[in-house]
Amino acid sequence: QVRLVESGGGLVQPGGSLRLSCAASGFSFSSHPMSWYRQAPGKEREWVALINAAGGITNYADSVQGRFTISRVNAKNTLYLQMNSLKPEDTAVYSCKSPRLSNWGQGTQVTVSS
């Protein structure tokens, strides 16, 4: 079955960096575009970034453009999100998902605080 396992979250100071990973299994990862989403406490889940199946095309929410980078290694069935210049408003649970599937992982908590 489809499985998505996010990792790499944690507590970081404003201005710091984190790299999130999403290990995928149970589907043809290399054939699917993939996205990162996040949900802050008391807020709706929001889309963060998208990458196409081959990894050559990316798109970002305005709020993270220029600070976050989405990437993938299809040979490892893994999706990444490099997050730089983190702000307190980036605090959320981050999850990965294929737009073509309904499955979600458990997410990984990112907290940006001094």
Describe the 3D structure.
- By secondary structure, the protein is an all-beta fold.
- It is about 0% helix and about 45% strand.
- It has strands at about 5, 10, 20-25, 35-40, 45-50, 60, 70-75, 80-85, 90-95, 110.
- A hairpin with a 6-residue loop joins β5 and β6.
Please specify the SSE layout and strand pairing.
Layout lengths: L2 E5 L2 E3 L5 E8 L8 E6 L6 E6 L6 E3 L7 E6 L4 E6 L8 E6 L10 E5 L2
Parallel strand pairs: 2-10
Antiparallel strand pairs: 1-3, 3-8, 4-5, 4-9, 5-6, 7-8, 9-10
Structure keywords:
single chain, 114 residues, mainly beta, six-stranded mixed sheet, 10 strands, 0% helix, globular
Summarize the structure.
The chain has 114 residues and is an all-beta fold. The chain has no helices and 10 strands.
Helix content estimate: under 10%
Helix/strand/pairing category: mainly beta
Q: What do the pLDDT scores average to? A: 97
Widest sheet, order of strands: 2-10-9-4-5-6
Which word captures the global form? globular
Determine the oligomeric state from the structure.
Answer: single chain
Number of strands: 10
* Total DSSP helices: 0
Write down the secondary-structure element order: EEEEEEEEEE
For the sheet with most strands, the description reads: 6 strands, mixed
Distance between the termini: 40 Å
Q: Which regions are unreliable across 5 or more consecutive residues at pLDDT < 50?
A: none
